[in-house]
Structures are given as structure tokens and as C-alpha cells.
Amino acid sequence: MDVEVLSRLQFAGTIMFHYLFPPLTIGMGLVMVIIEGMWLKTGDVSWNHAARFWTRIFALNFALGIATGIVMEFEFGTNWAAYSRFVGDVFGSALAAEGIFAFFLESGFLAVLVFGWDRVGPKLHFFSTLMVFLGSCFSAIWIVVANSWQQTPAGYHVVDTEVNGVPGLRAEITDYWAMVFNPSSADRLIHTLIGAMILGGFFVCSISAYYLIRKRHELFARRCFTIGVVVAAIFSVASLISGHHQAQTVSRTQPAKLAAFEGHFKTGPGDLHLFGWPDAKTQQVKYGLAIPGMLSFLLYADSEEPVTGLDAFAPEDQPPVWLPFQSYHIMAGLGTFFILLSCVSLVLLRGGRIFRMRWLLWVFVFTVFGAFVANEAGWIAAETGRQPWVVYPSVQDGVSMPGLRTSEGLSESVRAEQVWWSIAMFGLIYTLLFGVWLYVLNDKIQHGPDEGASIARRTGSLREAAAALAGHSRSLLGSNHQREERR
Asked: Per the domain annotation, does 394 fall within a domain?
């Protein structure tokens, strides 16, 4: 394999592993705000126990998200130096905004969230939970803005530059807010946050369903399961609306990507494929099922309206088809399943019928894996569908601006064997880290929430230990006093 393929594989592996955690913490943040709000409203201590449990789970995933995210920033410099020079002005401003508006907000209140339960009042702790949740959302905003700018660049111009004697091009911001509100940033941000909320809702449902099946912590599980289903249902339906609007935006701003998503090889009325196997050689989708004209209807409300196909682009400018097609349809298929499952479950919540349906609870236990896959598949589709461009060419104020091909973004000095070694090293470290994550997560789930009796036992043990320590201290003081008298 050449350096480009290896570097892309390395970055794909590290970012996919990292992306297990940010959407989960964002989605869990919303659930934690709801649960802690219920504690403030009702004063019921069992809500407090629930909030403490989810905070422990949240802290684990938040820590891993931070640790795995740092690696990607180093890869920009080691493997993608030319790319870093091109986008440095844009990414620098976006990531600086993330640090100022998001990271400091998260880190400032995270300590209070995790360690402040018995040190601050309930209202301040709730405020800290809310700030950590909002901070995670703000972090997503600036990351998505930076990524969206690569897909639909705006508010910049390109200049010739030279760094350490190496000539190249550099994108410089001319209109900051045009860069932030580029044509795809709002759609992509909304869809990303919705996906995170779906994952958070189903994650809570999965653990709660497991407790219900095992007949453990049933009050906790019923309450949290109900919240998780409501969150999952609301945002699953919202994802359908958001996804439809985003597809319309992609059809205008990145028609080659949409053509790859749907296996649309020739310009003309577009069919909507439910599944299939796109073949670039024969330029057709095999073994599939399609609804004639439905793609045109969804995009333009006219089943006969032509949709731009891959034949409208030069061969060297066409994205690959198979991977974007399959990942896009996996995401869409899972999204449809989530809508059906969550909406039916809302009906079954009445009278607690769903809690007696053991088979359906098992479905919820494993649906969280589908939510992880859907989030990953959406990003795979978005990133592979924009190839061969890492930054799209555009037109700014009537002037054509060059883009940056992925092959042009590589570091000049990196070699294939170096990337091979780093892939092997990261693979080993991430495998061990994944195992540690599963072990600690399972340990926390098996322990479960602290209930009144366990807290009382723990408090009693602490009191006994404190009394024993005090008695030991008194005996030591007495012995010292006797020695002084003998002297």
C-alpha cells in the first residue's frame, strides 16, 4: 500500500475509535440533566442515586474521549502536513473557539459534577451538570464547523505561501462568520447532535433493560428506561426530518456525494434504493430494491426531475461508490428501525406493558450497538463521499478557488513503513484501551446504582472505621502521656 492509503486508514481507525465516546457523552449529558432535574423537582433520593450512577458512567467515557482525541491532532502534523498548512488558518480559529467556549466550560464544571456531590448544594450541582452538557455541545459545534468548511468552503481566499522552504497554498479567512455559517454547517451540526441524543437514549435503555431482565434495581431501571425511550423516540423522528433536509443540501452543494450515496451513475430521474450492490464497472446497482423516481420526488417534489449523476464529473473527480453507498444505507436503515422501535415502545409504556415483555427488553439491550454503528456509518459516508477532495474547490465572490485533493495533503517526508509501524502501535494500544473500557464499564454496570441500604451500610462502615481510628488515637495519646509521667 502507498502512503496515502495507509495514512487514510490510520486516521480512519483513530477517529472511528475516538468517535465512540463524544456522541455518547453528549447524549448521556442530556439524560443526566433530566434525571438531576427530577431530583430537584421531587426531592426523591432515588433520583439522586440514579444521577450519581450515570455520572460515574459519563466520567469514564468523557476521559476516554479526551485521551483518544489528542492523537488525531498529532496526526495532522505527522501525516498531513500539507493539509495542515492549507487549512491552518481556518482550523486554528475554529479549534481556538472550541477551547475558549467549550473546553474551559466543560473542564471548569466537570470536577464539580464528578466530585461535588457532598460538597456543593443540589442547585449548584445541577447547574454544573447543565454546563458540562452544554460544553460538550459547544465542542461539537466547532468541530463540525471546521469539518463542514472542508465540505462547503466559504469566507476565505487562497494565497501562495512558503513554510520552512516548502512552497504551497494556504486558505485564509476573509469573513469569519461566513466561514462559521458555511452552507452545510447548520444541517450537519443538527444531524450530528441528533445522532448523539439517539445514542444516549438507547445506551440508557440498554443498561436499564438489562437490570429489568435480571430483576435488579427495578425502580431505577423503570424510571431511566422511560426517559431513555422518550429521548430516543423524539430524536429518532427528528433524525428523519434532519436527514431529509441535509440530503437536499448535499444535492446542491455536493452532488457527486449524493450520487455516490444513491448509486446514481447517470444524470436523469433518480430512483431511491432501499439496498443493493453498486457496481462501478457496469454503472448500475445490482441485487437491489429501488422505488422508481422517489429520489427525484424527495429532492424536488417531482419524480421526473433529473438528479445529477456521477457521469457529470470527470473520472478523477468522482468519489468511490460502494463504501459511501453501503454506509449511507446502513445509517438510514438503522434510523428507520430506531423510529419504529422507539415509537412502538412509547405506546407500550402505558400501563408498564413493555416491562413485562422480556423479548423486547432484550432487543433494547442490543440496540445500543446499532446506535453506535449508525453514528459511525454516517461519518464514514460523509468522509468517503467527498473524495477525492479533502477540501472542495469553490467559488468566492465570483472567483474560483482551488480545493485540495487528499493526495496533495500528505506530508512530504513520511514513508510507508513509518505509517505501518504507527498503525500497528495504535492498533495494539487501542485494543488494550478498548478492553480496559469494556472491563471498567461492565464493573460499573454490575455494581449498579447506590441504593439507600448500600449507602447506609457504607456510611456505617465509615463511622465504624472513624470510631476505631479515634479510639486508636486516644490510646496512643494515653501511652505517650504515661511515658511522659514516668520520665
From this structure: no
